[in-house]
DNA sequence: AACCAGGACTCTG
DNA sequence: CAGAGTCCTGGT
C-alpha cells in the first residue's frame, strides 16, 4: 500500500545513520527482517512517485505493520513544515534543496543501533555497515535468508579475537568479534552487551528524559558524547539530540561562527539550544547538505 | 609502503 | 581539568 508521506528512500537508506546498515536492495525495493514482539516479518519498501509503497509478509496485523514502518522511516514527521523552518534562516535555507525527502532512519532493533553506533566511532560508513552485516550473517537467526541482529545475551558470549577462540575451541573459524573488522572496539561491544543484560533494561531508556538517557548511555564502554547522541536519536527517537563530530563542528563553525575553531562540546550545546526538537534533523541535513553541495570538500583544506 | 581519517579512552602536566 | 597520544582498519 502507498503511504502518503513524501520521502526519498534511497537517500534515507544510504545516508549512514547508525540505526542499522542499509536494507537489502533488490529490484528497486529495499527489504529487511523486522521482529515485532518476537514475531518475524519481512518488510519491503519501494519508492513510488514521492511516496513509499509498503508490503510485508509475516504473522502480524496490518495495523501493527504500518505503525512499525512509519516509525522506522519516521513517516509521521512533517517535512513540509520542517522545510519552511529551514527556509526561514539564511544559514539553513539551501539545505532542503540538496536533501529533499531525507528522513530519519530509525532503529528496528535498539540493541543493533547501540552496537552500530559504537562501531561507527572513528570509522567509515562503508566499514561499520559491513561489520554489522557480518555479525548478522554469523550470529543472527535466519528467516528466509534475512538475518536478525543477535540479542545482548547471545552477544556477550562471543569471543573477542582469534586468540580467545583458539584457546577455547582449539581452532579458528572466524567466529569472533574482531573477525568482523571492528578492531579495538570488540571489547567495548562485548562489555556493552553485558551491561544491557545485567544493569540497563533497554525499555527503560524510552521512559527517561533526554538528559537522564544521555547520562545513562554514556556509562556504556565505547560510548562518548557523539555516539550517545546517535543512539538516542536513531535508536530511541530523542529528536533534540544533536550528534556532534568533527564534520558537524566544521560545518557549524563555517555557517555560524565565521570559521572559528570551536570545541565539539560547544557545538553540541549550540545545536541543542538553537534548533530544539529539530536538532536531530538539522544535524542530518547539515551533514548531507555539506556532502552534496561541495561544502565538505571546501572545508577539508 | 608510509600515511591518513575517524571518536573514545587513558595518561600526563 | 585541558591537551596529547594511542587504538584498528581500509583507503590512498
Radius of gyration: 19 Å
Secondary structure class reads: alpha+beta
- Largest sheet features: 5 strands, antiparallel
Order of strands, widest sheet: 1-5-4-3-2
**Element-level helix/strand string:** EHEEEEHHHHHEEHHHHHHHHHH
> Domains counted in the coordinates: how many?
3
What's the level 1 CATH class of the largest domain? Mainly Alpha
User: What's the total count of β strands?
Assistant: 7
Number of helices: 16
Please tell me what the overall shape is: globular
**What is the second-level CATH architecture of the largest domain?**
Orthogonal Bundle
Unreliable stretches covering 5 or more consecutive residues: none
Helix content: 40-55%
Distance between the termini: 47 Å
CATH topology of the largest domain: Endonuclease III, domain 1
CATH homologous superfamily placement of the largest domain = Hypothetical protein, domain 2
Write down the overall mean pLDDT.
96
List the main descriptive attributes of the protein structure presented here.
single chain, 301 residues, alpha+beta, TATA-Binding Protein, Endonuclease III, domain 1, Endonuclease Iii, domain 2, 3 domains, five-stranded antiparallel beta sheet, two-stranded antiparallel ribbon, 16 helices, 50% helix, 12% strand, DNA-binding
Amino acid at each position: 500500500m502507498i503511504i502518503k508521506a513524501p520521502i526519498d528512500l534511497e537517500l534515507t537508506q544510504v545516508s549512514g545513520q547508525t540505526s542499522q546498515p542499509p536494507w537489502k536492495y533488490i529490484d528497486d525495493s529495499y527489504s529487511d527482517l523486522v521482529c515485532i514482539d518476537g514475531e518475524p516479518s519481512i518488510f519491503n519498501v519501494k519508492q513510488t512517485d514521492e511516496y513509499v509503497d509498503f508490503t510485508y509478509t509475516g504473522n502480524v496485523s496490518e495495523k501493527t505493520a504500518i505503525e512499525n514502518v512509519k516509525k522506522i522511516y519516521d513517516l509521521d514527521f512533517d517535512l513540509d513544515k520542517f522545510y519552511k523552518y529551514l527556509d526561514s534562516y539564511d544559514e539553513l535555507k539551501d539545505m532542503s534543496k540538496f536533501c529533499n525527502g531525507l528522513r530519519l532512519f530509525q532503529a528496528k532493533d535498539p540493541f543493533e543501533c547501540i552496537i552500530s553506533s559504537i562501531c561507527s566511532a572513528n570509522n567509515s560508513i562503508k566499514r561499520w555497515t559491513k561489520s554489522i552485516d557480518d555479525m548478522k550473517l554469523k550470529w543472527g537467526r535466519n528467516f528466509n535468508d534475512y538475518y536478525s541482529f543477535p540479542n545482548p545475551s547471545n552477544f556477550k558470549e562471543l569471543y573477542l579475537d582469534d586468540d580467545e577462540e583458539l584457546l577455547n575451541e582449539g581452532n579458528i573459524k572466524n567466529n569472533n568479534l574482531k573477525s568482523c573488522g571492528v578492531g579495538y572496539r570488540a571489547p567495548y561491544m562485548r562489555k556493552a552487551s553485558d551491561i544491557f543484560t545485567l544493569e540497563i533494561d533497554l525499555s527503560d531508556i524510552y521512559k527517561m528524559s533526554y538528559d537522564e538517557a544521555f547520562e545513562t548511555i554514556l556509562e556504556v564502554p565505547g560510548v562518548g558524547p557523539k555516539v550517545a547522541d546517535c543512539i538516542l536519536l536513531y535508536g530511541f527517537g530523542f529528536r533534540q539530540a544533536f550528534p556532534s563530530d568533527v564534520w558537524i563542528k566544521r560545518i557549524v563553525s563555517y555557517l555560524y561562527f565565521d570559521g572559528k575553531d570551536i570545541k565539539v562540546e560547544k557545538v553540541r550545546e549550540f545545536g541543542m539550544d538553537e534548533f530544539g526538537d529539530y536538532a536531530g534533523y538539522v544535524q542530518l541535513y547539515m551533514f548531507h547538505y555539506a556532502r552534496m553541495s561541495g561544502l565538505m570538500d571546501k572545508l577539508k583544506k
